[in-house]
Amino acid sequence: MEQEVDVAIIGAGSAGLYALGQVKRKTDSYVLIDGGELGTTCARVGCMPSKALIQIAEDYHRRNIFPREGIEGGDKLRVNGPDALEHVQDLRDIFVDKVLSTSTDDMGDEFISEYAQFIEPGLLQVGERRIRARRIVIASGSTPIVPGPWKNFGDSVLTTDEIFELEELPESLAVIGLGVIGLELGQAFHRLGVSVTGIDQLETIGHLDDPEINKTAIQLLGKEMPLWLGYPADIEKLADGRLRVSAGEKSVDVEKVLVCIGRRPNLESIGIEKAGVTLNKRGIPDYNRNTLQIEDKPLFLAGDVNSDRPVLHEAADEGRIAGINATVETPIAFRRKTPLFVTFSDPNLVLVGKTWSELDPDNTLVGSVALGMLGRALIMGRNKGQLRLYADRRTGKLLGASMIAPHGEHLGHLLNWCIEQELSVLQMVRMPFYHPVLEEAIQPVLREMVANGGFAPDELPPDLERL
């Protein structure tokens, strides 16, 4: 027996839930399908529990600046590992419950708590039921990648699916993969007293492709914990149960290994090969980034499953786009927002707009500033980092930014909005900059770029204009 619906949504993560919000506005004939753990990747194993752990680590790490501020007794502070991890889990459960209470908990038969698999184009096997859908939103998410041989080491090898279930802090930890997740969690565990070694086969960290910012980031973060770059990692088990992790000529013996080498789209598990689409060399179907439609099929690919911009606000946008287009006859192309990526290490790593590798070097104006003497950062004891801005040499419009900066998350938002508004560096330098704030870091860079680009009238200071 087949159930026919207008729209089937595979996956109740962020993208799937936002798609559902749009579909419900247009039709009552839909199903949401998910047989896995509910509550979204962000709330369960991503954005939120990681930030809870990072906050504890930052609070404890702050004790190192107490002596120069005249605060005594900081050396007596200690971390109770089980209590700290329980606090992270308590907050995680609050975030998950909030998601569930406003989504699947309120759904009836429209929600199917089973896994879906394609039988043929437009037809899904869902548990013992078959669902035939006029249009299907594929928002099945992704899964952490762990090389096959490493799985033999059991619970000594962790991913983000397991790290937040720990009941005690490990004595030592090797973090393999220094992208966003590896840097955030590696630094947090280090600050909580775990002996951490970070390893990546690349010579860049945090997806930084600006060589100057990458160099500064490696110098700053490498002062806290060892960073082994440029060699792939290998793992072997020792007689005492620990793991020996090697990279190049270096090796370290650790209690646990956290693997952060990427995530694999959940497509094979849904039988995507039977959906009537062709997979490209990346292992996903070709799709339109502005409509999210796969080829010319009544299929839409949204969220982490497309491996494009694996962050929550992008998953939300993609869910909305896919949900809208799953309910109209002709898919609508939407302009995508300016990219913004934040690594919540300390200092933050931030990428805004176009990255270094996407720029035309002959037509790009670059401005830079080191943050060592930034007044507010100096007061905070966090005056470390560097900011680089990129602008079009002909128009002066801001194109992008890369930084390692204290509270760079806020600078990144500000610059992202400027790019969204298509502001030029001359327009930006005319904006007020309060003193003393971290945003002042942007002002000297803008002045430098205005002067070097010749965008200001010669008779006026670059940040003033006649009434």
Can you put this structure into words, describing what you see?
This protein has twelve helices and 22 strands. By secondary structure, it is of the alpha/beta class. It has three domains: 141 residues, FAD/NAD(P)-binding domain (3-Layer(bba) Sandwich); 114 residues, FAD/NAD(P)-binding domain; 114 residues, 2-Layer Sandwich (Enolase-like, domain 1). Strands 1, 2, 3, 4, 5, 6 and 17 form a seven-stranded mixed sheet that branches. A five-stranded parallel sheet has the order 8-15-9-10-11. The longest helix has 21 residues.
Key terms for this structure?
globular; seven-stranded mixed sheet; alpha/beta; 467 residues; FAD/NAD(P)-binding domain; Enolase-like, domain 1; five-stranded parallel sheet
Structural class: alpha/beta
Mean pLDDT: 96
Approximate shape: globular
- Radius of gyration, in angstroms, nearest whole number: 24 Å
Task: Estimate nothing, just give the exact number of structural domains.
Answer: 3
State the gist of this model:
Helix content is 28%, strand content 24%. It has twelve helices and 22 strands.
